[in-house]
Sequence to fold (189 residues):
Amino acid sequence: MELIEDKTFDKHNFTESPLAKAEYERCVFKNCDFSNTNLEGTKFIDCEFMACNISLATLSKTGFREVKFKDCKMLGLLFYNCNPSGFTVSFDNCNLNHSSFYQTKNKNTFFTNTQLNETDFTECDLTNTVFDNCDLMNAKFESAILEKCDFTTSFNYSIDPAINRIRKAKFSLQGIPGLLDKYDIEIEN
Fold:
């Protein structure tokens, strides 16, 4: 597999001219369109994606190691198809609505100012992950490991402590209703 290092891709439309299947190290992708593209088998190591549209891209066996996404539109991505070896990502001001991290290991991940509406975290290991000011409306947490997670500044979540491991997780007082949703009770100030 070809190795491409230290290259910046700016305003490339990969829907018209596909990204070469290669290993990309320390590359930066700015304002690029990857929507509905096939990234199967491509490896990204220590790369940054800034203001890119990656929505509905095929991620089968795609490698993401130490990859940062900032200001990206990433709707409907199936991260559980990615290569799990060394999978480490972070998201800042991204839209990850309708994506799935089903059964992935995302320990120590940072989600900052990110929309995660209807995102699936079923059976996901999110140990020590930070959800900083994230919208988790209808996000699905089932049989997830949420130990030492920080949800203190996030909102709209519904997490059932009976079916998730939440030991030493942090929540704000305003977020407590999200832990009691299943009881259909009213909590007033």
